[in-house]
């Protein structure tokens, strides 16, 4: 029997991930079994186990794709090392959500709605799965530190209030992003442009405006 090529293996793996994402998005993590994923992918029952040791491993990968979609633009904005505001950071993360499709770690186009539904479910899994929580916390802390650095850059440029503690401010930015994803996915908040405008208005310190008049 000929050995499977690397390209074929990657394609099979992507097929299984896509099937799992559809199942999770439609039925939820706990209502979806590995045989369900295999059936959705139109592969043998044992095929998913050739690529993933457990359903949790697939959850981690899909959740990672969802958060990468939002946070990679934030990383790029931070790396630009220019004048940045809190609202700029929120906008960078939220704008990709307004599209219909994103690109996963394998370079495949995937529906944004499926990714976000899986991301919201993944938050619930953090409360019961220590391994998932540890991975999520590591990613969260890494991004939070990068955002804090961007806020410090903004303070030096004068675009971020000097009174803001960058480390605590980074948590505010993360809270806005997570809150938007929940409202967008669960409650139908779909006017991304208006939300970003409202973030800018809400974050404007009217006391500072009065002082400059």
TrEMBL record:
Pfam families: TetR_C_6, TetR_N
Superkingdom classification of source: Bacteria
HTH tetR-type domain ranges (all copies): 10-70
Start-end of DNA-binding region: 33-52
Keywords: DNA-binding, Repressor, Transcription, Transcription regulation
PANTHER family linked: HTH-TYPE TRANSCRIPTIONAL REGULATOR RUTR, HTH-TYPE TRANSCRIPTIONAL REPRESSOR RV1474C
Name of the featured protein: TetR/AcrR family transcriptional regulator
Species in which this protein is naturally found: Amycolatopsis silviterrae
Lineage of source species: Bacteria, Bacillati, Actinomycetota, Actinomycetes, Pseudonocardiales
